[in-house]
Design brief:
Elements: H1 2-20, H2 25-37, H3 54-58, H4 61-69, H5 93-104, E1 133-136, E2 141-143, E3 150-159, E4 165-173, E5 179-188, E6 200-203, H6 211-217, E7 220-227, E8 234-235, E9 240-243, E10 247-256, E11 263-265, E12 267-274, E13 280-281, E14 283-288, E15 295-296, E16 300-301, E17 305-314, E18 319-327, E19 332-340, E20 346-352, E21 363-371, E22 376-385, E23 400-401, E24 414-421
Parallel strand pairs: 9-13
Antiparallel strand pairs: 1-12, 2-11, 3-6, 3-10, 4-8, 4-9, 4-12, 5-7, 5-10, 14-24, 15-17, 16-23, 17-22, 18-21, 18-24, 19-20, 19-22
Helix pairs in contact: 2-5, 4-5
C-alpha cells in the first residue's frame, strides 16, 4: 500500500512539474506583456527598451522576473485592497507566478504564431478621423544633456467662434521618449482679458514672475487630465463630454526624463469634436492647493518633520465620479481620500501608501461612483521632510510650504474629481 501511495505521489509530482514546464512565451507570457508592459516598452517612448519580440523579453528574462516579482513593475501606486480601478496596471498573483516559472525554466519560446511580435497596438492612436483642433506649445523645449530632470509649465491660449462639443482629447509629443508624464488643465478665461500674448513656457520651479498672471488665467477650470506612459486617448462615452470654452487657455505641465544628450521636444493636444450635443457634461473640481477647500493646518512642513494635513468638505449636491486624480509633490509620503455619510459609513476612494511623484495617475472607477448629498469628503496627506526621505529635494531639509502653484520643491495637497451631476441608477453604469 505504501509503495502504491509513493508511486502515486511520484506520478502527481511528475505531472505537476510537467505542467509547470508548459509555461511558454507565446502562449502565456506574450499576452501579459501585450497588456501590461508593451504600452510603455515600445519604440518611441521613454521606456529604456522595447518588449515587442520574444528576443526582447528573453534576453531580459531574469530582470523581468525580478521587477515583476517585487511589483516594482509595472508601476501601480494605488492600494488595490482599498479600492480597485478600471485602469489598474498591477499584475495578478497568477501572472507573477507564470513569469516566475517561465524565467526558472530559462524562458522557453513555445509555438510561434504567424507574427512573432507582440502587437504594437495603437496605444496612443488617434480616432479614425483627423483632429478638429490642434493646440500646440509655442516653441520646442530644449532638454540639456545633463542627466537632470526638467519640469516645465506652458500656457497655450485659444479662441473659438463657438463652444465645440469635446468627445476625445489626445496628448501628442514629437519626442515622446523624453516625456515622463504630463498634466493639463483647460480653463475658461473672461472675454475681457487679452490672452494673445500668453504663450509662455517656463521652468516649473521659477514661477514667481508669472504667478499673479497665472492665477488670473486659472480661475475657471473646465477640465483636467494628463498623460502617463501607456495612456490611451481620453474618450468619453456616448452622450458624455464637455464644451470647449470659446476663450481660454491650456496650462500644460511636462515632466522630462533625464537625457545624456541635448534634445528638443514640442507638445500639443489634439481635440476631436462631435456634432452631437453633449447630453451630460463632465465637470472637474479641484480640491485643495489651488482649488476649493481648506487645508488644515496650513500646508507648511518644517525641517526634520513628518506631518499630516487634512481637507474636509461637505458635498452639497450628489455626484457621480468618473476619475480621481491625487496630487502631491516630492516629500509627499501617503495620500488617502474617502467620504463618510450621515449614517457613519466610510466609503474608500483612493489610497496611496508610498507616494511617488514620478508615478501619478488619474484613477478611473469601474462604475460611476456615487457620492451622496451631505457626505463629507476627507483628504489626508502625510509629508516627510526629513533627511531620511530619499525624495527630499533639499539637503539639509528646508522649510517647505504651498503656494498653490506647480513648483516641485514646494508642496501641494490636492484631489481632482472628474464627475457628473448624479442621476438615479448611475452607480450601475460601467465605465
Amino acid at each position: 500500500m505504501i509503495k502504491i501511495f509513493s508511486a502515486l505521489l511520484l506520478m502527481l509530482s511528475s505531472t505537476f512539474v510537467s505542467a509547470q514546464k508548459k509555461i511558454t512565451y507565446f502562449e502565456h507570457i506574450a499576452p501579459i506583456i501585450q497588456e501590461r508592459c508593451a504600452p510603455c516598452h515600445r519604440p518611441g517612448t521613454a521606456a529604456p527598451f522595447s518588449l515587442l519580440t520574444y528576443e526582447d523579453a528573453a534576453k531580459r528574462a531574469k530582470m523581468i522576473g525580478r521587477v515583476t516579482g517585487t511589483r516594482y513593475m509595472p508601476p501601480w501606486k494605488a492600494d488595490h485592497l482599498y479600492r480597485s480601478f478600471a485602469n489598474e496596471k498591477r499584475l495578478t498573483e497568477d501572472e507573477i507566478e507564470r513569469i516566475k516559472q517561465w524565467v526558472a525554466d530559462e524562458a522557453p519560446r513555445g509555438k510561434e504564431p504567424k507574427s512573432g511580435k507582440v502587437r504594437n497596438t495603437n496605444i496612443a492612436a488617434s480616432p479614425a478621423k483627423a483632429a478638429d483642433a490642434i493646440l500646440q506649445v509655442h516653441r520646442p523645449f530644449i532638454v540639456a544633456g545633463d542627466l537632470k530632470e526638467n519640469f516645465t509649465l506652458s500656457v497655450i491660449p485659444f479662441d473659438f467662434d463657438h463652444e465645440p462639443n469635446v468627445e476625445s482629447i489626445e496628448y501628442i509629443s514629437d519626442n515622446l521618449k523624453l516625456i515622463h508624464h504630463a498634466n493639463f488643465g483647460i480653463y475658461a478665461v473672461d472675454p475681457s482679458i487679452d490672452i494673445s500674448r500668453d504663450t509662455v513656457s517656463i521652468n516649473a520651479n521659477n514661477l514667481s514672475t508669472y504667478a499673479t498672471r497665472l492665477t488670473q488665467l486659472t480661475q475657471n477650470l473646465v477640465y483636467y487630465n494628463g498623460w502617463v506612459p501607456g495612456s490611451t486617448p481620453i474618450t468619453f462615452s456616448k452622450g458624455l463630454g464637455f464644451k470647449m470654452p470659446k476663450h481660454g487657455v491650456i496650462v500644460l505641465t511636462n515632466h522630462y526624463a533625464p537625457s545624456s544628450v541635448q534634445k528638443t521636444e514640442r507638445s500639443s493636444l489634439q481635440f476631436y469634436f462631435s456634432k452631437t450635443a453633449v447630453e451630460r457634461t463632465v465637470n472637474t473640481l479641484s480640491i485643495g492647493s489651488g482649488g476649493v477647500g481648506e487645508i488644515t493646518p496650513s500646508l507648511m512642513i518644517f525641517p526634520n518633520e513628518v506631518k499630516t494635513f487634512h481637507i474636509r468638505m461637505e458635498i452639497v449636491e450628489p455626484l457621480s465620479l468618473l476619475y480621481v486624480w491625487p496630487h502631491m509633490h516630492l516629500i509627499g509620503k501617503k495620500f488617502t481620500a474617502y467620504y463618510s455619510t450621515a449614517a457613519h459609513d466610510t466609503v474608500p476612494l483612493v489610497r496611496i501608501n508610498d507616494w511617488d511623484f514620478n508615478w501619478q495617475e488619474a484613477y478611473k472607477f469601474k462604475k460611476l461612483m456615487k457620492i451622496p448629498k451631505g457626505a463629507v469628503l476627507t483628504i489626508e496627506g502625510i509629508y516627510d521632510n526629513t533627511a531620511q526621505n530619499p525624495h527630499n529635494p533639499n539637503s539639509p531639509p528646508m522649510i517647505v510650504f504651498s503656494d498653490g502653484l506647480m513648483g516641485t520643491k514646494n508642496e501641494m495637497l490636492s484631489l481632482i474629481l472628474v464627475y457628473l451631476p448624479y442621476k438615479e441608477g448611475d452607480e450601475n453604469i460601467d465605465l
